[in-house]
Amino acid sequence: MAAKKKATAKKLTFKPGEFIVYPAHGVGKIVDIEEQEIAGMKLELYVIDFEKEKMRLRVPTAKSEQVGMRKLSGKDMIEEVLKVLRSKPKVKRTMWSRRAQEYEAKINSGDIMFVAEVVRDLYRSERQPEQSYSERQLYETALDRLAREVAAVRKVDEKTAIADLEKVLDQAAAKAEAAANRAA
Prior knowledge:
Number of domains: 2
CATH superfamily of the largest domain: CarD-like, C-terminal domain
Number of strands: 5
Strand order of the largest sheet: 4-3-2-1-5
Number of helices: 6
CATH topology of the largest domain: Methane Monooxygenase Hydroxylase, Chain G, domain 1
Structural class: alpha+beta
Mean pLDDT: 88
Helix content: 40-55%
Radius of gyration: 20 Å
Strand content: 15-25%
């Protein structure tokens, strides 16, 4: 029995104490790996805490990859995210309900680059027109997900990460506005 447990432990992708990204909830921390008997079968489960949501999730270790759980991005990936935030927003001319569905799917994909695209596309500086309530909600959800991962990677608090991201977005918006004024 002990040999079987050891063999299983070697296959584990994540360890207790490690931060991970779960697509539908963002950054969480693995607090334990436990075994439970469900319907007569023994299952090994990652126990993940999402502190901000005050939520605990149990994910079968064998299904973690299938559900899209992943390790935090590296510092290089965060630099790529910042490049996306500095790039020109892509404004689609489709109906809002369709775009909202696409944004929601990107946010829940767990892919940090997709989340960064949503943040970039929905960001509005103080010099730009107001957003609708639903646009603002999607923007805040995407920014929150992005900021939590950036904060975990850079080992800073979430408020600092949000301030840093919004500074990058504001600089990009000011640069785009200055270029538009020069062209006019």
